[in-house]
Amino acid sequence: MTSKTVLISGASVAGPALAHFLRRDGYDVTVVERAPTLRDSGYAVDFRGAAFDVLDEMGLLDEVRTHDTKMRGTALVDETGTETGRLPAEVFAGELEVPKRELTRILHRITEDEVEYVFDDSISSLVQDDSGVTVEFERGASRRFALVLGADGLYSKVRQLAFGPHADALEHLGLSGAGFTTADFLGLDRSGVLHQGNGRAIYAYGPHDGDRMAVSLSFATSSPALDRRPREEQEHAVHTAFADCGWVAPRLLRAMTEADDLYFSSSSQVRLDRWSHGRVALVGDAGYCAAPTSGMGTSQALIGARTLTRHLAASADDHRTAFTAYEAELRPYVAENQAKGREGARAFGGGATS
Questions:
Q1: Is the pLDDT of residue 325 over 50?
Q2: 8 A C-beta contact, residue 72 and residue 87
Q3: Could you cite one Gene Ontology molecular function of this protein (predicted)?
Q4: CA-closest candidate to residue 303, choices 267, 338, 334
Q5: What architecture is the 5-41+100-164+271-347 domain classified under in CATH?
Q6: Three-state SS letters, the chain
Q7: 18-76: pLDDT as tens digits
């Protein structure tokens, strides 16, 4: 084993971006992903601010722009569906929005020939010593790496193993919700519609894919416990929250029950005193999720990946120095985004505090 061997957990956005920059700097990179294949799910992701510089540095900006959803804004409606105002496209779509599956495919394509991808597996144990990390996997044989980087999202397995239980890192913002796609019976043409009030919100935009629209049904909750509960319990909670809601709520509740792409998640932030522990470090949502209501998840993932790899290169691969500099540079940016996430959760009816 050399000092240039790195294991990355997670093959969504932060993981492949890390892999790209690390390979460029001469690292031998392995990416492990618990999904059996490259994920083809997720609706749309947006880019803001310095994320464009990262895409440009990767040589991907022009290609990513070809997948622009060209969203045209969101109508605000009351309980009868009557429009009461409008929000500009930038509120939900940022400066550029693309389907997440397209970004994931692009990042995988530019790394697959030089990076080892291991799908359908996950890390089960991390044991560090002065010279490296011994990693055990749920399926594959144990291996040894110089560094392990967690880019595996809100419920990061790397964070759980190296830093402690999820409950110690997650701060619930008082909002949970179900997302799914259904027939675009609202006739949304690259636009969205939002109804909110009484601690709940209905947001739909489309067409997500042909004649379909993406739907989010969000409501106030006291904890993220439903994230790990069976689907029937999640659906019951959504039905209960929207039982007396008018407009198109009854039809959307029926569509949710029939949906084969339902996902349920809570708006939570990851709040840690440090983003590294020995030879293990966290990037993106795994280390400092700002919540979907911030609109900054993808941008943070890309900027975090570039920032960490830049400091590794500048420190001549001294991971302690690099991890410290990475965190010192990025924390103010993350703090701003997490403030936006809390503000966004409150706007959608959550109980987030400052």
A1: yes
A2: no
A3: monooxygenase activity
A4: 334
A5: 3-Layer(bba) Sandwich (3.50)
A6: CCCCEEEEECCCCHHHHHHHHHHHCCCEEEEEECCCCCCCCCCEEEECCCHHHHHHHCCCHHHHHCCCCCCCCEEEECCCCCEEEEECCHHHHCCEEEEHHHHHHHHHHCCCCCCEEEECCCEEEEEECCCCEEEEECCCCCEEECEEEECCCCCCHHHHHHHCCHHHHEEEEEEEEEEEEEECCCCCCCEEEEEEECCEEEEEEEEEECCEEEEEEEEECCCCHHHHCCHHHHHHHHHHHCCCCCCCHHHHHHHHHHCCCCEEEEEEEECCCCCEECCEEECCHHHHCCCHHHCCHHHHHHHHHHHHHHHHHHCCCCHHHHHHHHHHHHHHHHHHHHHHHHHHHHHCCCCCCC
A7: 999 999 999 999 999 999 998 876 678 889 899 999 999 999 999 999 999 888 899 99
Burial class (CB in 10 A: 0-12, 13-18, 19+), 61: middle
Q: Which of 95-109, 119-133, 205-219 has the lowest average pLDDT?
A: 205-219
Angle CA 307–60–284, to nearest 5: 35
Which sequence spans correspond to the domains of the chain? Answer: 5-41+100-164+271-347
Residue 156 contacts residue 9 (beta carbons within 8 Å)? yes
Average pLDDT of the chain, as a whole number: 92
Per the CB < 8 A criterion, the answer to whether 229 and 207 are in contact is: no
User: Residue 177: phi, psi to the nearest 5?
Assistant: -175, 165
